[in-house]
Amino acid sequence: MAASDLVNLSGLLDDAKCFALVRRHRWPEGARCPVCDSGAVIRDGHDGTQPCRQRYRCKACAGRFDDLTGTVLAGHHQPLRVWVLCLPFMGLNLSNRQIALELGLDASDVQAMTEQLRRGLVAKTPAVELTGGVEIDEVYVVAGHKGQLAAVAKLAGSGAGAGWQARRAAARWRRTNRPSSA
Ligand SMILES: [Zn+2]
Question: Within 10 Å of residue 21's Cβ, how many Cβ atoms?
């Protein structure tokens, strides 16, 4: 029996928190215009069908955009919370088929989603320039791989090492979504 028969996971996630998560990742220092990169933007109401999706207007170029404009999450029929739920499942190395079962989706839909998520949550942000102190993300060592460098290198060459980006995305997601201890 699929877990989705027991618990509708995506129904437990809060839309407002999912949009807040995207905003935090995309604009850690406040919303910026995706067209001219100005920080002089004002909130401009909410999406007509997704009330938690904030709209903005740029005071510099008069452009209009919202939380998802220019990201892989824009223009898809799946609700944002379904995308967000994909991340921890990808981090657990579940197959597209398993994720589809858990979320009650078509495997082909899930494949399209995970491919896009692996390319990056926010595909069109400008390249990051590293300056000063740089924090490196966690390194994952699969238990059975410890001390088996040669075998792992061979695996990596065959493409079996793919998926590290998904694990990194999930780790980042976990870091920013730790349950409050308060
Ligand atoms: Zn602008």
Answer: 19
Q: How far apart are CA 51 and CA 44, in angstroms?
A: 12
Distance 35 CA to ligand 1 centre (A): 5
Q: Ligand 1 center to residue 38 CA distance, Å?
A: 5
Q: How far apart are CA 161 and CA 158, in angstroms?
A: 8
**Residue 64 Cα, ligand 1 centroid: separation in angstroms?**
8
The 3-class SS string of the chain reads CCHHHHCCHHHHCCHHHHHHHHHHHHCCCCCCCCCCCCCCEEEEEECCCCCCCEEEEECCCCCEEECCCCCCCCCCCCCHHHHHHHHHHHHCCCCHHHHHHHHCCCHHHHHHHHHHHHHCCCCCCCCCCCCCCCCCCCCCCCHHHCCCHHHHHHHHHCCCCCCHHHHHHHHHHHHHCCCCCC
Global model pTM greater than 0.85: no
Question: Residue for token digits 């919370």?
Answer: 81
Mean pLDDT of 69-94: 87
Distance in Å, CA 59 to ligand 1 centroid? 7
Query: What digits encode the pLDDT tens for the residues 93-137?
Result: 999 999 999 888 999 999 999 998 888 765 544 455 666 776 666
The mean of the pLDDT values for the chain is: 79
